[in-house]
Write a structure and sequence with these properties.
The chain is mainly α. The chain contains 7 helices and 2 strands.
Length: 176
């Protein structure tokens, strides 16, 4: 049995972060090391592929007025995780997980648009119209994401056909 020897940049979190930072700043010499890290350590892939988390952080801190309110931020995180768990179900496919993340992101955008509409005070008709259209678009995106998840799940279900006649027959669509 051979021991998996990790390269030196795995020795500390600081070295990992330095490599990642170099790549984020456009240093092409860091790309092979980043590729290697992503292949060897799935946690880094999840950490760097956290587009949903970036959306959440931005919306909560900038748009919903959370700023440095860590209690508010944590409450939103819990709500989003509950939505993810509830919508994802016990064994979601990779496609379902992507769609659930999209639904969660769209739900957050709807909340942000609703919050902005509620905050409107003395504004022009053009400004009110802008925020109303923004709210409507966010809601449409949310509904489209929900519909897509429902369609994907419907396609995954076996077909069931019941023929009621003299000889009753039930076909579940499986050819096995």
């Amino acid at each position: 049995m051979t021991k998996n020897v990790l390269p030196e940049y795995y020795e500390s979190n600081d070295k990992l972060m330095a490599i990642i930072k170099r790549a984020q700043q456009g240093d092409s010499t860091a790309v092979p090391a980043v590729r290697d890290m992503l292949d060897r350590v799935p946690e880094i892939r999840r950490m760097m592929g956290g587009e949903l988390q970036e959306i959440v952080d931005t919306v909560v801190s900038r748009s919903l007025g959370g700023g440095e309110d860590f209690a508010f931020h944590e409450a939103i995180q819990r709500k989003l995780q509950a939505l993810r768990d509830e919508l994802g179900g016990p064994n979601p496919s990779p496609l379902e997980r992507l769609l659930v993340d999209r639904i969660v992101a769209c739900w957050l955008q709807v909340q942000e648009a609703d919050f902005r509409m509620a905050q409107l005070k003395d504004c022009s008709a053009a400004q009110a119209s802008f925020f109303q259209k923004r709210q409507d678009r966010a809601h449409r995106r949310f509904l489209a994401a929900v519909k897509t998840l429902a369609q994907v799940r419907k396609m995954a279900l076996p077909t069931l056909q019941v023929n009621i006649a003299e000889n009753q027959q039930v076909n579940n669509g499986n050819t096995e």
